[in-house]
Amino acid sequence: MNKQVSELDQGLLVVLSGPSGVGKGTVCAALRERMPELVYSVSATTRQIRAGEQDGVNYFFKQKEDFLKMIENDQLLEWAEYVGNYYGTPREFVKKTLATGKDVILEIEVQGALQVKQKFPEGVFIFLAPPDLKELRSRIVGRGTETEDTVNSRMAVAKEEIELMDNYNYVVVNDQVDLACARIESIITAEHLQKDRQIAKYRKWIKEV
Amino acid sequence: MNKQVSELDQGLLVVLSGPSGVGKGTVCAALRERMPELVYSVSATTRQIRAGEQDGVNYFFKQKEDFLKMIENDQLLEWAEYVGNYYGTPREFVKKTLATGKDVILEIEVQGALQVKQKFPEGVFIFLAPPDLKELRSRIVGRGTETEDTVNSRMAVAKEEIELMDNYNYVVVNDQVDLACARIESIITAEHLQKDRQIAKYRKWIKEV
């Protein structure tokens, strides 16, 4: 079997990321409601399971030594340690889901997204941008009452955020959750319509005749 | 001024093409109704103006010698001769409209689209595919009652159409006009959200501060 064809026939890995506080979680939840066919990537963690949580649904709950083995065996698309606990994205779950032709969504911090990009560059990387970046000029300059220090520090933050975007395929402003979701849905639709994926599908069909 | 930034800040040239009879005209008309902000690229022609037609609206009506000069001076993105008359896409109209930030749509035969791609590779090239390509397998094999010749000739046509797709960025099946339009709208939305265009916009804003 042609490897390239079979890869192009898979689902898409959609990576939704952006600066903290931008509303990734809210947009991701709304998007999943809007597109129930999207499969949410379940993270692995070493933290204790909480009441109401289910293994394999909220997280894959792991012992620390198992988690460290997953890191060692390159079984995680990304991982990080927060306050003594490990969190990561199991490669196997993503791979298996994509192989069924379903799209997977991964909602993740910027540092994690950069790790995923290293290991899975064919993903669709979407940067969720703060709405105030949209009014960059007026925000930075203000009403003429801002000190030079304020203007400079706002400028520095804006520049940092813009440089981050360079690692992504798309930039979506989160000005309104439903608008942001509609834009992401358009991106997913368009990615599926890309020539390479479509030709691969037709070629596969012809082969099967 | 940074040339790259200014180009990325322009509108998109959307080229809608596909095999004859696929319904390009119908889809294009429906799309323009759905997206009134899309500017339709007006062709130049040497044919006689007809009652009810307006110069600059239906066509730019040209004398043959003026048209030949436009070819000579590379002022057409593509051109062709049909039954003694010349038809072509004036580069100037497209360029000026894109410079205002508006998107332009060009509905055109496959040969013309290939010419446009040579001169304007940054366009968004969309191949409108016949709906029966979607049911490729069943159509080619039929109900087991097809002769080998029929199967082979259907296979040949399908393969030709698929090879054509390779020159485009996207493939949209025209199974239903409203679905095809929605897909094209998603493509245009997604193209505007591409990182390079977004970063260029933000960088321009920062520069203007």
Automatic annotation (TrEMBL), chains A, B:
Q: Where does the Guanylate kinase-like domain lie? A: 11-189
User: So where does ATP get bound?
Assistant: 18-25
> Which Enzyme Commission numbers does its entry carry?
2.7.4.8
Listed SUPFAM superfamilies:
P-loop containing nucleoside triphosphate hydrolases
| Main location per the UniProt record | cytoplasm
This enzyme catalyses: GMP + ATP = GDP + ADP
Superkingdom classification of source? Bacteria
**GO annotation, cellular component aspect:** cytosol
- Name the PROSITE patterns for this protein: GUANYLATE_KINASE_1, GUANYLATE_KINASE_2
Top-level EC class, please?
A: transferase
Write one Pfam family the protein is assigned to: Guanylate_kin
UniProt-recorded Gene Ontology molecular function terms: ATP binding; GMP kinase activity
Q: Which UniProt keywords apply?
A: ATP-binding, Cytoplasm, Kinase, Nucleotide-binding, Transferase
Which locations, inside or outside the cell, does it occupy?
Answer: Cytoplasm
The UniProt function text for this chain reads: Essential for recycling GMP and indirectly, cGMP.
Looking up NCBIfam families in the UniProt record yields: guanyl_kin
Q: Which HAMAP family match?
A: Guanylate_kinase
Would you identify the family this protein belongs to, as annotated?
Belongs to the guanylate kinase family.
The protein, known as: Guanylate kinase
